[in-house]
C-alpha cells in the first residue's frame, strides 16, 4: 500500500507528555477525529487501528520517556486510507517485522500482525538529526 501522506485531506497532530495517560488521550483523540472525518467507529479497521495506536504510544511512554518528555501523534485520513504516526525523541529505531511463528505476540509484534493482516504498511522514519523517530502505520479503509 503506497500512499503519499501529504495527499491525505484530513490531518490532526497531538503532542502529549510521555506519561501513561497519553495512551488513553491518544485513543480518545483518534476516535473524535475519525468521527469528525466521517469514518464510523464500527468500521472494521478502526478497532485494530486503535489497538495499534495504543501499543505504539505505550512503547514510547515505556521505552523513550527518559530521552523524550513528549510524544507526538499524527492522525491522517482520506476516504480510503488511515495513517497514524507516533513520534518520540529517542534514537532507537526498533525493527518492524512480524511476530515469530509460535512466539505469541505483544508490543510491536501485535502492531505488525494487525497492520499486515489489514493489508497495511509500517515504517520507521528517523528524524533528520538522528535523535528521534516516527513509526508510521498506513491502513486501507
UniProtKB/TrEMBL annotation:
> Which residue numbers delimit the Histidine kinase/HSP90-like ATPase domain?
16-108
Keywords from the named record: ATP-binding, Kinase, Nucleotide-binding, Serine/threonine-protein kinase, Transferase
CDD domains registered for this protein in UniProt: HATPase_RsbW-like
Q: Organism's domain of life?
A: Bacteria
Q: Which GO terms describe its molecular function?
A: ATP binding
**Could you confirm whether the keyword Secreted appears in this record?**
no
Instruction: Tell me the classification of the organism that encodes this protein.
Output: Bacteria, Bacillati, Actinomycetota, Actinomycetes, Kitasatosporales
Protein's name in the database: ATP-binding protein
Could you confirm whether the keyword Hydrolase appears in this record? no
Amino acid at each position: 500500500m503506497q500512499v503519499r501522506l501529504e495527499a491525505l485531506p484530513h490531518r490532526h497532530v497531538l503532542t502529549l507528555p510521555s506519561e501513561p495517560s497519553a495512551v488513553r488521550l491518544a485513543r480518545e483523540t483518534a476516535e473524535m477525529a475519525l468521527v469528525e472525518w466521517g469514518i464510523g467507529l464500527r468500521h472494521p479497521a478502526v478497532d485494530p487501528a486503535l489497538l495499534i495506536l495504543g501499543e505504539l504510544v505505550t512503547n514510547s511512554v515505556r521505552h523513550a520517556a527518559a530521552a523524550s518528555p513528549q510524544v507526538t501523534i499524527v492522525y491522517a485520513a482520506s476516504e480510503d486510507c488511515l495513517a497514524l504516526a507516533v513520534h518520540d525523541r529517542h534514537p532507537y529505531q526498533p525493527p518492524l517485522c512480524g511476530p515469530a511463528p509460535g512466539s505469541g505476540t505483544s508490543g510491536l509484534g501485535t502492531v505488525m500482525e494487525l497492520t499486515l493482516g489489514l493489508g497495511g504498511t509500517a515504517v520507521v522514519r528517523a528524524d533528520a538529526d538522528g535523535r528521534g523517530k516516527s513509526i508510521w502505520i498506513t491502513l486501507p479503509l
